[in-house]
Amino acid sequence: RHAFTGGEAIGEDTFVFYRALGVKLRQLYGQTEGSAYTAMQSPDEVRLHTVGRPLPGVDARISDSGEILLRSGSIFAGYFGNDAATAEALEDGWLRTGDAGYIEPDGHLVVLGRVSEVVHTAVGERYIPNYIENRLKFSPFIKDVAVLGKGRDRLAAIVCIDRETVSHWAELRGISAISYADLSQKPEVLQLVGEALRRVNATLPEPLRLRQFVSLHKEFDADDGEITRTRKLRRNVVEERYAPIIEAIYGGQRSVAVKAQVVYETGETGVTERELAITEV
């Protein structure tokens, strides 16, 4: 009769798939210290980006640092035999969850990730790059992405399209490309990526919406140190390697020239200078 998902967010396609099958899947939020769940979506208010409202008897607020704080009769009394950990977790009856988030005007709670992952824009807006990146990668057309904006006046992204999915999409529409680099800069593909970014933007607060993106001429590569073998982004490496692209984005340019190694369908490789478009979202 009821089905719930918690923990790490599942992909939007997966969530919608089960809902389409008639499984009344809903999202919830909680932890052991709160005696299981403390927030849950109601059957008539299912949204892809929230975990619902706090349950009756549960108070929730956001600290000055952006951390989700909870208070209720179900919050634990402390860790057995560990007064130091208890003092760190509980403050004046409020449980410090360690999670960052925000509460929407209608009371829905949005969980962004761990507080330790929070970074700030130039004007002090808090955000977690990984949260936005994961939501973008729910799109079948985006394989990897790096969200930019730490210490900047706006958010932007470097996007790596999914070669197989986008190639198939382009083939069905008669769009030809001789390489990944060529495909990544097709106007139709840039529009496709832009649509994916706009869908995610619709779920984000206005100051944290992505304003521009570059469709990269290559995929992030573990052999180049840009991602780990489990495809986790090495942010420092990416920001250092693609510094000219990042500076072009925030410098107001409409494109940026890069030298790119291309692999043709014949298997042959070559090096070419390619102009990457800086696209408004």
Describe the protein's architecture and organization:
The chain has eight helices and 16 strands. Strands 5, 6, 7, 8 and 9 form a five-stranded antiparallel beta sheet that branches. It has two domains: 115 residues, Luciferase, domain 3 (Roll); 162 residues, GMP Synthetase, Chain A, domain 3. The radius of gyration is 21 Å and the shape is elongated. The model has no long low-confidence stretch (mean pLDDT 92). The protein is an alpha+beta fold.
Q: How are the secondary structure elements laid out?
A:
Blueprint (H helix, E strand, L loop, with lengths): L2 E3 L6 H9 L4 E7 L4 E5 L12 E2 L4 E4 L4 E5 L11 H7 E2 L2 E10 L5 E6 L4 E2 L5 E2 L1 H8 L5 E7 L6 E7 L1 H10 L7 H5 L2 H15 L8 E6 L19 H7 L1 H8 L4 E9 L5 E12 L1
Parallel strand pairs: 1-2, 13-14
Antiparallel strand pairs: 2-3, 3-4, 5-6, 6-8, 7-8, 8-9, 10-11, 12-13, 14-16, 15-16
